[in-house]
Design brief:
Elements: H1 9-25, H2 30-38, E1 42-45, E2 59-67, E3 72-79, E4 90-94, H3 103-109, E5 113-121, E6 124-129, E7 139-143, E8 153-154, E9 162-163, H4 164-181, E10 190-195, H5 202-210, E11 223-229, H6 235-238, H7 242-248, H8 254-263, H9 270-287, H10 310-315, H11 319-331, H12 344-354, H13 357-363, E12 382-383, H14 390-398, E13 402-408, H15 416-425, E14 430-439, E15 442-450, E16 454-459, H16 466-469, H17 471-483
Parallel strand pairs: 4-7, 4-10, 9-12, 10-11, 11-13, 13-16
Antiparallel strand pairs: 1-2, 2-3, 3-7, 3-8, 5-6, 14-15, 15-16
Helix pairs in contact: 4-5, 5-14, 8-9, 11-12
């Protein structure tokens, strides 16, 4: 019989409520939370369960309280640059979701650790060093945001209620308090980065810093710019772009696409509506068995009871629904039940690792605060109250800050077509026209540079998100961009 699990749906939320109520009314539980919040807020981590020997890089973990009334604590992993911490940029990295742990960035995307899919050490998934880490170029703070993501927590139920704007404000508070404790990094060039759903958050946070919100005390932060990968930006642009993307990828025919364009154009006749519905149904039949995170990867068997609904994704952002399906389905399976061809096999390893007591002890996790760690917690009561981040892109870039926007060219979750569309809406002039960029003599993608220091690039062969699929090329991209060189 399958064990009862906490990760998905309402069960996780109600277990959390029960835990918090018990902590509130039980005198024996109160000291536990009090002791946790009073503990040292940052620790140096030299060894991690699952990794053989000492870590070959520096790692610190800690918490910053961003809402004293509700006891909201945001957890972070900080890795100083492996090159020159005093001189290299400092980057705050935010994962998507909303609700995905920043361990996703650290282990699967841009950090110096990765899981060995076939290796175990002392009963835990084995960790290995990843040489393509962006920590070779930059100091990086991997932040669990919003509250409820990863190891971030609140001591009240009310504190878990979050939104785009609330998350942005708490990130700004986090930065101010983090720099208060780490003034040695105030002079480092500061960049805000993230991917997927954080495309809504990163430009907004950057705009807040640029306008002095929460972090305007002296000395001011040395903000230089921001970067977003495969970024959700405006669902009214990103959503509809999935269909022309599917056409370009030869997933739907010219005939189907032409009927779609004609029948689903602006209009209110009942005939047009029926034709549009039929067109969308035809498109759905063509793409329902395609894995949208990377259209060339297999749609794994574990997802078959709940197939991806392309039409739903067209009408909505799609990112949260697909991520919830991907994680919640996988969480209920043993690793042996998931094909090694499935990327979720690697994602499941992080759940096994982060829920181990020795791992939590090594990371300095406050006891009794997170009953079950999830790579992506989609049960957070979260309001999406920023409908579009385009205006924040415009605000920051017209102030002269640098920006890099990159897309995996095989991503059907947030297709590059939609990203190009909102970039064009900024009406910036083209400085460097569309051209290939290279790594080791091979085309790594295509890039365009615009006025106001905005660079857009595709990463050839990458999905959602790009560094996960093409780490070597993405490291080269970042090395050139940080240095101010042409891609």
């Amino acid at each position: 019989m399958r064990a009862i699990r906490f990760p998905g749906g309402e069960l996780w939320w109600w277990m959390l409520v029960i835990l918090l109520l018990c902590c509130r009314f039980s005198s024996s539980s109160l000291p536990l939370i009090a002791a946790a919040t009073a503990a040292a807020e940052e620790r140096v981590v030299t060894h991690l369960p699952g990794f053989e020997g000492p870590l070959p890089f520096h790692l610190r973990t800690g918490y910053v309280e961003v809402d004293e009334g509700n006891g909201v604590h945001l957890f972070y992993y900080f890795i100083p640059s492996e090159r020159s911490p005093a001189d290299d940029p400092l980057m705050l990295w935010l994962s998507g979701g909303p609700g995905c742990s920043s361990l996703t960035g650290l282990v699967y995307q841009i950090g110096p650790l990765g899981f060995d899919l076939h290796g175990y050490m002392d009963g835990l998934p084995k960790l290995v060093y990843r040489p393509e880490s962006w920590t070779k170029l930059s100091n990086i703070i991997f932040l669990d945001s919003p509250v409820g993501a990863g190891f971030s927590y609140s001591i009240t139920v009310q504190g878990y209620k979050s939104s785009d704007t609330k998350a942005v404000n708490q990130i700004l508070i986090f930065l101010r308090k983090w720099f208060d404790k780490h003034p040695e990094f105030l002079s480092n060039p500061l960049y805000i980065g993230g991917d997927s759903y954080s495309g809504m958050i990163v430009p907004t946070v950057t705009s807040g810093i640029a306008n002095g919100k929460h972090v305007g005390s002296e000395p001011s932060l040395n903000l230089k710019g921001y970067l977003v990968g495969n970024p959700l930006t405006d669902s009214s642009i990103d959503g509809p772009s999935k269909i022309p993307f599917a056409h370009r990828m030869a997933l739907i025919s010219d005939q189907i696409y032409e009927v779609y364009k004609k029948s689903c154009s602006v209009g209110d006749s009942s005939y047009q509506s029926v034709q549009c519905t039929n067109s969308l149904n035809a498109i759905h039949e063509c793409v329902k068995d395609i894995f949208p995170f990377h259209v060339l990867e297999p749609l794994c068997s574990y997802a078959s009871p709940h197939p991806y609904n392309f039409l739903k994704l067209k009408l909505n952002s799609g990112v949260r629904e697909m991520q919830q399906l991907q994680d919640n389905t996988a969480e209920g399976l043993h690793l042996s039940e998931i094909s090694t061809q499935c990327r979720t096999a690697e994602y499941t390893l992080s759940r096994l690792w982060a829920n181990d007591a020795t791992v939590r002890e090594a990371l300095g996790i406050h006891k009794g605060t997170v009953p079950a760690w999830l790579r992506c917690n989609t049960s957070i009561p979260y309001t999406k109250d920023i409908q579009s981040s385009v205006k924040y892109h415009l605000d920051v870039t017209t102030k002269g800050y640098r920006s890099l926007v990159y897309s995996g060219d095989h991503d059907m979750v947030v297709p590059y077509i939609g990203t190009q569309s909102w970039i064009r809406s900024l009406n910036f002039s083209i400085v460097d026209d569309w051209r290939p960029w290279y790594v080791n003599g091979q085309v790594a993608g295509y890039t365009t540079s615009y006025s106001n220091n905005l660079t857009f690039t595709t990463v050839k062969g990458a999905g959602h998100t790009a560094p996960e699929y093409q780490p070597r090329q993405c490291l080269a991209m970042m090395a050139r961009w940080f240095a101010g060189d042409r891609l």
